[in-house]
Amino acid sequence: LRLLKIGAKIRVTVRKVWVSFTESCPFKNIFNQALDNIRKIPLRV
After folding, report:
1. Which of 7, 9, 13, 21 fits as disulfide partner to 25, beta carbons 3.0 to 4.6 Å?
2. What pLDDT score does 30 carry?
């Protein structure tokens, strides 16, 4: 397990969390893959 240290701008609204990366972010693909995996987890109701 590795801890990712990234530089990104995070905006939080009532409904969404926006994460904006710089163009040269080396971990952008890894972060997107982790986000896709989180989205596949079913929600509990």
Report:
1. 21
2. 82
